[in-house]
Design brief:
Helix content is 40%, strand content 18%. The protein is an alpha+beta fold.
Length: 176
């Protein structure tokens, strides 16, 4: 027992698990906030010697020698594409040939979705802004940079600006 002025003060005690591998951080140490966040659907399947993992909404695909390696590579690919400090992707393995990815940074994930779709459509920022009906490219770019988070109505308008005639589908998470 200690004595002195600090003896009666209870100090908060937090256990912070430390994992030595990226795989454990991405698959095991998922915060409750990450579990509540937006998720994107992905497919994983074996093709010859390799496992291929694809996130169709982002037009992104990678591979690994094992299923686990391919899922780790998906997280690494999306973190590299986002190119945002502190942006971390969590992979939620599903049943059979599915998985989902999420990020605590919803702005980063939303900006990645918009940028990848604009690039897939071959549009510049100015062209995307013009399709949105904005006077400057910054009106669109602030969503792509993640400085603004769109409402669902605004997201629909942004999506139609970069992918006319295409819809995105919201569905309940299927991964555990």
């Amino acid at each position: 027992m200690t004595s002195g002025p600090m003896a009666s003060v209870k100090k908060p005690f937090h256990v912070i698990p430390r994992f030595t591998t990226n795989w454990r951080r991405r698959f095991c140490d998922v915060s409750k906030e990450a579990l509540k966040s937006m998720r994107l659907h992905g497919h994983i399947y074996k093709d010859g010697k390799f496992w291929l993992a694809e996130v169709p909404l982002l037009d992104a695909m990678t591979q690994g020698r094992t299923r686990k390696d391919a899922l780790v590579m998906v997280a690494d690919l999306l973190e590299t594409l986002a190119n945002r400090p502190g942006f971390a992707v969590h992979v939620h393995p599903g049943k059979h040939e599915t998985f989902e990815v999420s990020a605590a940074d919803t702005r980063g994930l939303m900006s990645l979705i918009l940028r990848r779709q604009r690039e897939r459509s071959g549009l510049s920022l100015a062209e995307a802004a013009a399709r949105l009906g904005a006077k400057s490219r910054n009106a669109y770019a602030r969503y792509e940079r993640g400085t603004s988070v769109p409402t669902l109505d605004k997201l629909t308008a942004l999506w139609q600006a970069v992918a006319p005639g295409q819809d995105f589908v919201l569905q309940q998470s299927m991964a555990g």
